[in-house]
Amino acid sequence: MASSEIWAKRVAAWRASGQSADEYAAGRGFAGSTLRWWSSHLGRRGPALVRVVPIAERPRDATLELSVGDVRVLVRADFDRGLLAEVLDVLREKAAS
Fold first, then answer.
1. Which DSSP category does 20 fall into?
2. Domains in the chain: boundaries
3. Which of these, 1, 29, 28, 24, lies nearest to 13 by C-alpha position?
4. Rg of the Cα trace of the chain?
């Protein structure tokens, strides 16, 4: 028997297809009525829980180098997001012109 995760994927694909449940289910090994039931069942369960996977911390001296054409930008671990956004905006404008 398929798990609720598999049914959630099937329901999402069905909804994205624009087809009726019966049309979508045809030839896929399950019935449209089962697809509709799972859609209703999953909707009643509330939001799905998300598994959070921790990642290793970056070293304080980590540096990322971005090269766009002849422009080189070094981004350190403690960078200013606003400043980087401004620099990227300028680079986009230059690339578009």
1. -
2. 4-44, 63-96
3. 24
4. 24
